[in-house]
Amino acid sequence: MTKIGTLIWLILAMIAGFGLFHIKYQVQQLESELKEIYSQIDQNQTAIHVLNAEWHYLTEPTRLRKLSEKYLDASPLIPSQMIALQEFNSPAFIDNVNKIGPEEQNNKMLNQNVNRNLNSSKNFKNEKQNTKSSSFKQKKP
Questions:
Q1: Looking at per-residue confidence, does 106 or 83 come out higher?
Q2: Chain mean position to CA 44
Q3: Distance CA 35, CA 90 (A)
Q4: Nearest-angstrom CA–CA distance, 105 and 95
Q5: For the residues 56-70, what does the mean pLDDT come to?
Q6: Which pTM does this prediction carry?
Q7: HEC letters along 38-87
Q8: Residue 89 has pLDDT above 80, yes or no
Q9: What share of the chain is helix, strand, coil (3-state, %, to 5)?
């Protein structure tokens, strides 16, 4: 009986030892995976930090203004270049867009904008001259 009991305890000790050995290596494997995940998180955080710094540099208003002046040849919008949203939904606007091709649309819109700008600048000059002459007349009494 003691031999059987000893044998059972020996088998149980071996199973427990093998189990502990197996669990120990599983824990070590999980810890190494956890270290890899933490290093990836650190790398991603560093990359995010670098990308944020790059984004702030690239979207800096003074830099964008210089680049737009250099490459876009654009000027600030004036009120006559803007149209109301309702004008896009008007049947006349839709018919005009449907009748002409993309290049003709661009040319037509460009011509309309140029004409608007010319008219608005003429109106502005006329108003400016009218205000100067009226203010000059008011000073004489």
A1: 83
A2: 19
A3: 63
A4: 12
A5: 90
A6: 0.42
A7: HHHHHHHHHHHHHHHHHHHHHCCHHHHHHHHHHHCCCCCCCHHHCCCHHH
A8: no
A9: 85, 0, 15
User: Could you tell me if residue 73 is left (phi over 0), alpha (psi between -120 and 50 degrees) or otherwise beta?
Assistant: left
Q: How many CA atoms lie within 13 A of 23 on its CB side?
A: 6
d(CA 121, CA 131) in angstroms, rounded, equals 15
The CA–CA distances, whole Å, from 122 to 82, 110, 131, 132 equal 18, 18, 14, 15
End-to-end Cα spacing for the chain: 136
pLDDT in tens, 91-133: 776 666 666 655 555 666 666 666 665 565 555 555 555 554 4
